Amino acid sequence: MVRMQPYWRDFSVERAEHTSAAAAWLVGQFVNASLPAPATHHDLIEFICASSLPRPIPVVSLCENLNSQSIIRGVAYCKMPGDLIDDVVRAHPGVSWWVTKEGLHVEVVLPANAMSELRTFDQIAGSLVVASWKKSEERKNTSLTGVALVEIAIQLDAAGLVLKDALQPAQWEKLRTHNQKAGRAAIKTFEKLAGSIFSHMLRRRLYTARDRYIDATARKSDRAKPPIPKIFHSPNPVIC
Fold first, then answer.
1. Are 103 and 110 in contact (CB under 8 A)?
2. Separation CA 48–CA 139 (nearest Å)
């Protein structure tokens, strides 16, 4: 039987289990189903796996980044599940997917040394913003909601990060001047900053962290991508 080598750009050969039990979730499988909108990319992956025939693909883990993008029009699938999964994952920088005998994994996988050049704040805050970012295909815009801003601020405080080290010098100087006159109302935590008249400072700094994080995760590794092992090659697909 002639088998085709798939072209999966974001499939992690290193993390996948090269066993017949793991490959069975992809080889010889097919999806022929429709999903109405609206749906997040997280929903799309779950739908692809549930609709895979002759047997559904168990989902082991899906990263929160997949919730940052949605579709506004329904989709009709007639393709192999591995191709569909890779198509969805490609829209998310730094995210990879693979299979083990337990099922599908979709997680953030950073290139070797990608984070070494980033400050700790940009690493932590950047990943949090990417996971919370909302994109509207209908309005062609992106945003970080007020609720998400506060939630991220709470997590930054929990991580032990400090405002002085995170803010830009001009931002910190303005906040320091305010705090000198504010007494008990001084702003000393990210959570308090997010709920203050200076919340725009945090929002701008988070946008910068997001851009730096995306740039770092999008960098290609110096190593050549290993070919997909033959165990994952599938027979010629049925034409719908």
1. no
2. 26
Q: How, if at all, do strands 3-4 and 39-40 pair? A: unpaired
In the block, tokens 């405002």 appear at 163
- Residues in contact with 223: Cβ distance below 8 Å, sequence separation at least 6, in sequence order: 112
Give the per-residue SS3 of 136-200. Answer: ECCCCEEECCHHHHHHHHHHHHHCCCCHHHHCCHHHHHHHHHHHHHHHHHCCCCHHHHHCCCCHH
- Residues 31 and 75: beta-carbon distance below 8 Å: no
Tell me the chain's radius of gyration from C-alpha atoms: 22
CA–CA gap between residue 234 and residue 26 (Å, rounded): 8
DSSP state of 30: B
135-176 pLDDT per residue, tens: 544 444 557 888 889 999 999 999 999 999 999 999 999 999
Side chain identity, residue 232: F
Global pTM value: 0.68
For residue 12, is pLDDT > 90? yes
Does 24 score more than 90 pLDDT? yes
